Amino acid sequence: MKTTMKKTDTPEIRCSQSELRAAQEGRTITGYAAKFNCWSDPIMGWFKEKIDSRAFEGTDMSDVIMCFNHSIDNILARSSSGTLKLSIDEIGLRFEFEVPNTTAGNDMLELVRRGDISKCSFKFRVDSDEWRYADKENGLEFDERTILHISKLHDVSLVVHPAYKDTEASIRELEERKADHFKNISDDGCVESESRKRTVELLHLKNR
Questions:
Q1: Nearest alpha carbon to residue 61 among 193, 153, 144, 183
Q2: Residues 116, 46 contacting (CB under 8 angstroms)
Q3: 3-state secondary structure 136-153
Q4: I want to staple 63 with a disulfide (CB 3.0 to 4.6 A). Which of 16, 80, 161, 177 is the partner?
């Protein structure tokens, strides 16, 4: 069973599945902020997701910053100033920027060239998504989410650890949406994994 939903209110952060590349000559760093139709690893132990190839059609990318660990104190480039270039191709959302001649910029360039920093993540807001929930009939181990449209891209970030930290608010919202979907069904056959149970319990405890 598939369910299409509209708009989440909380920005989400996800790790990119691509590696960064820094030119050995010059100061250009390139990579993909997102790749289309590639399943993620299980998020918080209970769902996987992929991005539809049309998800960035009409997305607001007018003021996207390139930063380090999602910190606005470490801006490396910006789309509104023309220093961050974003483009869509058959693979996904590609970025390119010239590293600024600043202390932070020079440090980032050296660390990317050395391979100490090799991943990125991105912060975005979803306008529409589709879910296939694990149940007894389909036998899925994890819920599956397809992101159909991203309304706004906030930033692309070089990261030390491409983990799903800072996602608790968005995960809580997704869990509440699923509960709303099933609230009028007496026997939905939903598969409840132990890791998913622990995640929900932890979020409820933190929200008290």
A1: 153
A2: no
A3: CCCCCCCEEEEEEEEEEE
A4: 80
In the chain, where do the E strands start and end?
2-6, 12-15, 21-22, 28-35, 47-51, 65-68, 71-78, 84-88, 92-98, 119-132, 143-159
Quick check: 133 and 3 in contact, CB under 8 A? yes
**More confidently predicted of 167 and 71:** 71
Residue 202 scores a pLDDT above 90: no
Residue 116 tokens read as 């100490």
CB-CB neighbours of 193 under 10 Å = 16
Check: CB of residue 35 under 8 Å from CB of residue 55: no
60 - beta bridge partners?
Answer: 152
Instruction: Quote the CA–CA distance of 89 and 28 in Å, as a whole number.
Output: 19
**DSSP helix/strand/coil, 24:** coil
Pairing of strands 12-15, 119-132: antiparallel
Q: Max CA-CA distance within the chain?
A: 63
> Which residues is 144 bridged to in the sheet?
48, 132
Instruction: For residues 5 and 129, give the distance between their C-alpha atoms in angstroms, rounded to a whole number.
Output: 5
Mean pLDDT score across all residues of the chain: 83
Give the C-alpha separation, 19 to 131, whole Å: 28
Torsion-angle region of residue 98: left (phi > 0), alpha (psi -120 to 50) or beta? Answer: beta
